[in-house]
Write a structure and sequence with these properties.
Rossmann fold; four-stranded parallel β-sheet; alpha/beta; globular
């Protein structure tokens, strides 16, 4: 079982989008029994809230089911529970390192690392641009899935 945790600031836009997109991609390939996919926040600001309406609308337009989810905060124990902890931007990674107490197992990545390292996934909470965020999340999830299938034992890029 490959365990993936997507992480962003509030866990209502990017990380829930990535969770739903990755779940969709895995399901399309009949691999659902090989993956556990979830998402979390680095902050407490949105705890308990559902995915942002912009994320929900964009995923519906793409024909992707929104995974039922309420925002939760990443905790130190998540580091041991997951094989991959995937942040959306550099600030997420800094916060994830602080929450996890470091990254001795080299499990923390930016989603864009799996899509040619294009930088940060823009936060549509601020930009309002769910189209660009979706494009970048999709590319990252496709790359991550390819990586996971080519490297069944979790390891560094």
């Amino acid at each position: 079982m490959i365990k993936i945790l997507f992480v962003c600031h509030g866990n209502i836009c990017r990380s829930t989008m990535a969770q739903s997109v990755m779940t969709h991609l895995v399901s399309q390939r009949n691999l659902s029994d090989r993956f556990h996919i979830d998402s979390a926040a680095t902050s407490r600001e949105e705890i308990g809230n559902p995915p942002h309406h912009g994320t929900v609308d964009k995923l519906r337009r793409e024909g992707i089911a929104v995974v039922p989810h309420r925002a939760v905060q990443m905790c130190r124990e998540d580091y041991d529970k997951y094989d991959y902890l995937i942040g959306m931007d550099s600030a997420n990674i800094r916060n994830m390192l602080q929450i996890a107490g470091g990254d001795p197992g080299r499990k923390l990545y930016k989603l864009s690392d799996f899509a040619g390292g294009r930088g940060d996934i823009a936060d549509p909470w601020y930009t309002g641009n769910f189209e660009d965020t979706y494009r970048d999340v999709l590319a990252g999830c496709q790359g991550l899935l390819t990586y996971c299938m080519e490297h069944p034992g979790q390891g560094a890029l």
